[in-house]
Amino acid sequence: MAVDLSVTDNPLFIPEQALFEMAARVNKKRGFLFVSKVLGKHIPVHPLKPLLASGLLALEYAERKTGQELKEKNEILNGLLSETESELQAAYQTLQQHPVTLDEAPLVIGFAETATALGHAVYDCIEQASFVHTTREQIRNTEPSITFVEEHSHATDQLCYAEPDMMNNSCPILLVDDEITTGKTALHMIRDIQSKFPRKEYAVLSLLDWRTEEHKKAYAEAERELGVTISTVALLSGRISFKGVPLSESSCNYSPKPQGTAINRTDIDISDFFTSVPYQPETSANVHSYVKETGRFGVKPSERKAVHEACRQAALYIEQYRKGKRTLVLGTGELMYLPMKIASKLGGSVSYHSTTRSPIHPVAKQGYAVQNGYSFMNPEDEAVRHFVYNLPAGAYDEVFFCLEKNVSDEALQPIFDIFKEKEVPHIHIVTLSGKA
């Protein structure tokens, strides 16, 4: 396989290598993946980097929307590109002190699973905005407000359980994704929204935009057909061409070896800091508790500060369990933003990323985005396979593995086996919701 790419627009002059690396994807429909270095999904990052990248997207959108230059953007950009703790912290403080004000308060929608945190952090930067993220969770006796298909994904059905008053209005909608290749996913969603909750204005915000001229014409045609405007904002845009045959399966063994370091386990319940909401998934006979602050069911402007405060208190509580100087905080699937925000409040050397549904072909080769990978059944839904990538041996003194729901010890055993092989002596199982 070979992917040729050329950059056509880079408004902030961000070096390509600062934004992504490439990997082979195990997917017949699309054989490659741009693995983001600022997202906190497949590659471990400083937890402030995804928050700063989201801020730059929000500021770039605001500048184009209002026509006013935002001077703080350069400091935030410098922070994103820095590896210095003080510069990262100063940039994020600046971002928090200068929220964007728009004439009309938008609804920000983040795409599951990869852009749930990206969308939430964009919402954080816009005063009076509301937020919800799409989900692949199907909930019994609950009608989704939006349904659509993500064609190149391994799990194509996307749902949105936004509260009715969030959708039943005419406010602008900002769709946030880590990358758009054809843009069809966003168009599917816009069409579904427009058929139920018509409005005049949409925007699609992404870290990367690889649409061809043909794909851009499809956006212009949708604008004319639906009588709406659809603007796009990306940190980097370009063209890609693919040659070769996509992988239908990986030849790699994603299972951990049985030997390794003995692990000390700690269970940490931080549900007192968050709001548990009981729902019954379609795949389970049991009622589970979700966490309202994730944004799966929506968060409003008035709730933003409370979410930040909950994460701050949770971080203070978690701090007492720290066992070493090199810490990994690992989110699970759609649960990205809250663990990332908590990680950003912890002191010392902290890395953050998340498990994923995406099967990627790992290769231990310099310059390749995915050096190693492990698969396991999702402890929260054992019908769904998850993966975790780029776990260096001996790199961490401890890992905080964050779960939205309570799970069994048996379901966690594959996680213990992975970190046993990676020579992580301490694993903390962090649960965000209470028992249903």
UniProtKB/TrEMBL annotation:
Alphabetized Pfam families for the sequence? PRTase_2 (PF15609), TRSP (PF12500)
Q: Which residues form the Orotate phosphoribosyltransferase-like domain?
A: 19-238
Taxonomy of the source species:
Bacteria, Bacillati, Bacillota, Bacilli, Bacillales
Sample GO molecular function, one term:
glycosyltransferase activity
**Ranges where the TRSP domain occurs:** 293-418
State the name under which the record lists this protein. Phosphoribosyltransferase family protein
Q: Which UniProt keywords apply?
A: Glycosyltransferase, Transferase
Superkingdom of source = Bacteria
Q: Which organism is it from?
A: Bacillus vallismortis
InterPro entries with a match to the protein in the record: PRTase-like, PRTase_2, PRTase_dom, TRSP_dom, UCP020967
